[in-house]
Amino acid sequence: MQDGFRIDRRSLVAGATVLVASAAASPLKAQEKPVIDARTALIVVDVQNDFCPGGSLAVGKGDEVVAVINALGKRFANVVMTQDWHPAGHSSFASSHPGKKPFEMMQMPYGPQVLWPDHCIQGSKGAEFRADLDLTMAQTIVRKGYRREVDSYSGFVEADRKTPTGLGGYLRERGVARAVVVGLATDFCVGWTAQDAARNGLETLVVEEACRAIDLNGSLDKAWADMAALGVKRARLADLI
Ligand code: VGL
Ligand code: ZN
Questions:
Q1: Distance from the CA of 39 to the center of ligand 1, in angstroms?
Q2: 161 domain-assigned
Q3: How many angstroms does the Cα of residue 152 sit away from the middle of ligand 2?
Q4: What local confidence, expressed as pLDDT, does residue 26 receive?
Q5: Which pLDDT belongs to residue 28?
Q6: Strands of 233-235's sheet, edge to edge?
Q7: Ligand 2 is an ion; residues with CB less than 5 A from it
Q8: Which ligand 1 atom is nearest residue 59's CA?
Q9: Which CATH number covers residue 165?
Q10: How many domains is the chain partitioned into structurally?
């Protein structure tokens, strides 16, 4: 009895601490607790080797999202993954533009473009999903950025802002009304995908612990502001539990 009481009290205290910590960290109010039901999709963005430590465009601690996403995925009836999938010589690569270096900007016909190190080349090891990512949960995989002249951060629409990938139609046909967006990188592909999810009329949420950012010249702050402007909610994992 004595032991049982002590264990209970410890777990209660620990539980309360977690609740207080998450309440302090989360901008979501209790009444905004997200709904995860048959009409909610988890969109897992670009959890690929090149965006993880050791990859050519490694996002700091990018690999840490995998365990979180594997656990989260079990709770969703609908799971979609995106895969950055560039041909060699893609126009978003600095190496395709003599004299240009990675992370410089360049004006493209569709607008300003960050130039990246070569990454996620079709069929390469770097383009593969992380080996520890549970792919069995994915019902569909949407590839993007496969046209040489146009990049696509968003899983919904290419950077020309005209060419759809088909993901919007797929989710609509399946009656999906809500999206939880996770993966890499918060300030580029996750951010753009979440914004386009909102533009597609989905109630959209991004889970902080299930994302990591590149953070280039304030890109992370800007991404959160752009997402907020479109009504995308920023959640903590604890908000979903
Ligand atoms: C990404 C830069 C270039 C991403 C993809 O997945 O966030 N970032 N290509
Ligand atoms: Zn890319």
A1: 27
A2: yes
A3: 7
A4: 55
A5: 74
A6: 140-144, 78-84, 40-45, 178-184, 203-212, 233-235
A7: 84, 145
A8: 7
A9: 3.40.50.850
A10: 1
Ligand 1 lined by 192 (C-beta under 6 Å): no
Q: Do the domain assignments include residue 33?
A: yes
Asked, for residue 194, whether it belongs to a domain, the answer is yes
pLDDT averaged over the chain?
A: 90
DSSP code string of 58-120? PPTTGGGHHHHHHHHHTT-SEEEEEEE-BPTT-TTBGGGSTT--TT-EEEETTEEEE-B-S--
Give the percent of the chain with pLDDT over 90.
Answer: 85
- Is residue 213 within 6 Å of ligand 1 at its C-beta? no
Active site residues: 46, 144, 189
| 193: containing domain | 9-239
Q: How confident is the model at residue 27 (pLDDT cuts 50, 70, 90)?
A: low
Ligand nearest to the CA of 45: 1
**Model pLDDT for residues 96-132, shown as the tens digit of each residue:** 999 999 999 999 999 999 999 999 999 999 999 999 9
Q: Indicate if ligand 1 lies below 6 Å from the C-beta of 94.
A: no
